Amino acid sequence: MIRLPTELNEVLQQGGTVIVPSRQRAHAARLAHAAAELRRGQRVWATPDILSVDAWLTREVERYAATGGTNVPRLLSPAEEWFLWRQCAAEATGELELVNRGALAEALRRASALAAEFGIDILRAATTRRRSAPADSTAGVGSTEALGLAEASDNGSSQTALAEQTAALADEPGTEAALLADVQLAVDERCRSLGAATVASLVPQLASAAARAGATAAGSAAAFGGAGAWSVRGAEAPPAVASGFLVLPPRLRSLVTPARDVPSTEAVVPNVVIATDELDELERIAEWCRTQVQHNAEVRILITLPGAPGTRERLATLIRQAINPARWLTGSGAGSGSATADGQAAVPADSLVVIEGGSPLSQIPAVAHALSTLSWLSGNPGDFEAVSNWLRAPYWMSPGEVPRARLDLSLRERERMQFNLRDLTGALAGVPSALASAAKEITSQINKATLLLGQGAASPRDWSERFRAALEAFGWPGERARDSGEQQTVVRFYELLDEFGQLAAAARSISRSNAVQWFGELATRTAFRPADDDAVVTITSALAAPVVRYDAIWVAGLHAEAFPQPVQPDPFIPLAAQLAAGVPAASANGRLAEARALLTQWRTSADTLVLSAPSRAEDLELLPSPLLAEWIHSSEKAIAEQAIVGELTLAERPAFAEGPTLAEGPTLAEGPPAAPGSLWLPTRIHREGLLETVEDGVGVQWPVEKPLPSGTRSLELQNQCPFRAYAELRLGSTPLDAPEPGIAADLRGQLLHAALQKLWSRLHDSQGLAALSNYALEAAIHRCVEEAASETQRNSPSQRTRPSAVSDAQGDLFGNPQYSPALTRECRRAEKLIGALCALERERAAFRVESTELETTLTVSGARLNMRIDRVDALETGGRAILDYKSGRRGTADWYGERPSHPQLLAYLAALGDDVTGMATVNVTAREVRFDGIANVGELLPKVKGVEADFGTDPGDAWPKWRQEWRSRIEQLAAAFVAGRAAVDPKPGACDYCHVASICRISDRVAPAEGDEPALGGEDA
Ligand code: SF4
């Protein structure tokens, strides 16, 4: 069970106050108090006065002010305080362009809070400098004196020296300390003009008042204790005790009584685990949690795991899977409370594992959607992905998700990279008629919300109300049934709107864009997590004192580089001042003392304690923290003893560890033991030989009365990978269009094809080409490209090929002003490439262009293929050549393999007849312009090889023989497509650019590397 230390229980029973460092620890202490009351049989009890230090100081200042504290200004709300820092930091850095002012303001505010906590006077120098500056000669009295800070920091010569040092550094313009001092001073001045103050600035005044009232350091705590109004009540008043502080900050020392140290006789000896790596460490923790819960269903565990948030999420999943895999598999949330078949403790899944802390409110999906909506409405542009996410989000009342997904699809085809509200409504107006009603509904919501939001300048209160009204016009957060967490999120969002409205006192009138931006920033700095239950396992990232006593604590990640924690002084406060004030993070000694204090706290806060460190992080070898050394030896000994009695072998446990074995077999009811060493549920439930693999590589037949879909692409894909052909052409799994910069690849190809068609319809043959001078040829190419561009622009749904509203200097001066800059550039590029191709064509033997864009049909294996052949040349040497333009990247051609690289050329060959003597792709790219093909003899086309004859056969027979081979290959591909063959059988390299990898399960076929977890399923298509 989770328990409050006896001393804290006594304090609460006397009606006193317990003050802890963070709201998370306050929550834990309240849970411990509730558990104690329940154990005593209580059903109702008074709320214990357990507060985080910030909440307690705020309350005491408010009480002090409410009961006649003289000259106490109004207390700023947290939002107001943030806003003043934000504004003053922005003003102080107005000349710096690259500063993230929001982040800077937050860092400055934190530095100011740290300085206040440790009594570092950061204002004195700035005040002096301002007074001495002529322009500031009329400035009022500095807030330092007004709030008693100078008085508080001038006690003794060492503090005077410290103040002098700080002043010297803060007096140097351009230093971080000077910036902090300037911004702090500006904030104080703004506070005075508002008749308000921050909590931190009033704490010294509070301490002075308590001291004047005659309270001693310990007794003064009584001045702030109790549930009533603030009063000095001497030693009889309920106590205020601070617990969980590794170092009690100076500002608290005169206000509270530190909790007594727990006797060292109550400290447990920790077990030390050295894990192979970070993943192994997580698995050991999860396994250990499972063992703890099996031994005691009422256990309460704290796990401290510093590092990235994702690691804690992963650990939480592992623990849930380890403790209750059956519930995880069925996906049931709250449990019934009955025992599982294998005797595991029945624990409702919702109360099994919680992660302390929270994430920025702005990152919670429902709030992120609301903020995006406000951002669009205020005229901010966003990229296509942002629009797409907004349209597809589940927080709409109407239209439904299907029409919104279709609208998204339609917008993708418009290829616009950036949208603002006007662009979006314009795009919605141009969607196909089937989507018109959904588009109209969204447009109407946008128009209504825009009206409700309004523009110009208004007070934060007005903006807060308008934001709410605008979101209501969209029906945010939608009609979807919300779980408790989402409901709490929505409530917190509306609270934040109210807090934003309270900025009206600090900012009378702000513009719409500033209001939206600042509200977003406020949401970003507001951490939120829905209220947690009394969970079995609590995971925290903070290396902090637990405050309450747990049954078991595991602290992970204690390698030498992380524990003691690295020295990290605040960059805005002079280092000397931090050292002199005893800020633990500022010195190695401070960090060491902090680490030792933490070890003591952990040892006295748990019945069982495990300290662990990974011995490797990716490629980096890690050593355990030297502070663990004294316990490693005893853990080693324990392991050896367990090995002797056969509990486990040392080989099974590569490092020192505490009691439980790593893998105690499956937690499901039946089956052979799970693979040792892994807790991942898929690995644990995998049973060799119990899964039946069924090869099902054949789908539905293609109706032969219809031509094959997409012409020769069906053969192309069937050749690449039968499953991809089936997925893309039969199941419609085509990749979503995504806007890209410049001209889309398909439009680029269309432009090139159309221009070449027009050019050869004028030139006709090699003689026509040879007859033109270079200048005349350039002019002809230019005309053809211009005509092709006009056609492409007319036929394209894309906005990107249309004239730009903003004139482009390059386009106006050197290109057709009717085209967009991108299309103009593409035209110049196409002219250059076609010019290079014509130079190559001039080297060829005489030819005549017999047809361009020839439409024809091939019937093979009962399948009908409609084809369009780019170009067919009649050759002077006899026969014809098939040419296929390619504007994309080129691979190495393979004509002789089982899966030749250009099935479409083979299909053209099969369609055109026996007089075809060569075929080639014509690659027209910036990298190269070349023919790449095969012919009955070499050099029939530039650099194209002749077909290879088998050894000992007549070379003249090779071409007819291969023609037959290629035709039969085409027949096989067509027959396979018609039959619906859909095996996952990719050609080498085919998966590299395939979009259906997520559904073909190709990864199941890749042999797992040694140490990989086994694959789970079959290989069906
Ligand atoms: S990813 Fe590979 S195996 Fe899967 S469908 Fe695509 S080409 Fe075939």
Please explain how this structure is put together:
Helices cover 45% and strands 11% of the residues. It is α/β, with parallel strands linked by helices and 1021 residues long. The strands form eight sheets. The protein has a six-stranded parallel sheet with strand order 7-18-17-8-16-9. Strand 21 (847-860) and strand 22 form a beta hairpin. The longest helix has 25 residues, at 955-979. Residues 133-156, 215-235, 333-349, 642-676, 799-814 and 1007-1021 have low confidence and may be disordered. Bound molecules: iron/sulfur cluster (SF4). Iron/sulfur cluster (SF4) is lined by residues 721, 723-724, 984, 986, 990-991, 994, 996-997, 1000, 1002. Iron/sulfur cluster is lined by residues 721, 723-724, 984, 986, 990-991, 994, 996-997, 1000, 1002.
Count the beta strands.
26
As an assembly, this protein is single chain
Uncertain spans: 133-156, 215-235, 333-349, 642-676, 799-814, 1007-1021
Structural class: alpha/beta
Overall 3D shape: elongated
Largest sheet: 6 strands, parallel
**Proportion of residues in extended strands:** 5-15%
**How many alpha or pi helices?**
38
What are the distinct ligands in this entry?
iron/sulfur cluster
Strand order of the largest sheet: 7-18-17-8-16-9
Radius of gyration: 38 Å
- How far the N terminus sits from the C terminus, by CA atoms, comes to 51 Å
Report the average pLDDT across residues.
81
Helix content: 40-55%
